[in-house]
């Protein structure tokens, strides 16, 4: 079986669908295994798509912040 790559937002939508429908049906319709859905649920918990977008934004800002600090320290 070919491995599907999903964005975090897509995964959250699949998890929301799995909350409303049997996991076996959701997994089959998206071409993923049931264990994948359970592991995604562990990772993303009750996050919504807006939460995931905000989390990505914060991670990017944090990365830029670390780079800025690294540059400032190298100047000293």
TrEMBL record:
Give one GO molecular function term. transposase activity
Q: Which GO terms describe its biological process?
A: DNA transposition
Q: Which domain of life is it from?
A: Bacteria
**One Pfam family name from the record?**
HTH_Tnp_1
Q: Which Gene3D superfamilies match?
A: Winged helix-like DNA-binding domain superfamily/Winged helix DNA-binding domain
Q: Which SUPFAM superfamilies match?
A: Homeodomain-like (SSF46689)
This chain belongs to which protein, by name? Transposase
Q: Which organism is it from?
A: Polynucleobacter wuianus
Q: What is the lineage of its organism?
A: Bacteria, Pseudomonadati, Pseudomonadota, Betaproteobacteria, Burkholderiales
């Amino acid at each position: 079986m070919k491995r599907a790559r999903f964005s975090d937002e897509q995964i959250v939508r699949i998890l929301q669908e799995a909350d409303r429908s049997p996991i076996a049906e959701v997994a089959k319709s998206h071409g993923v295994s049931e264990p994948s859905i359970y592991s995604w649920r562990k990772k993303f918990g009750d996050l919504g798509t807006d939460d995931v977008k905000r989390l990505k934004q914060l991670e990017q800002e944090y990365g830029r912040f670390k780079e800025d600090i690294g540059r400032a320290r190298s100047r000293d």
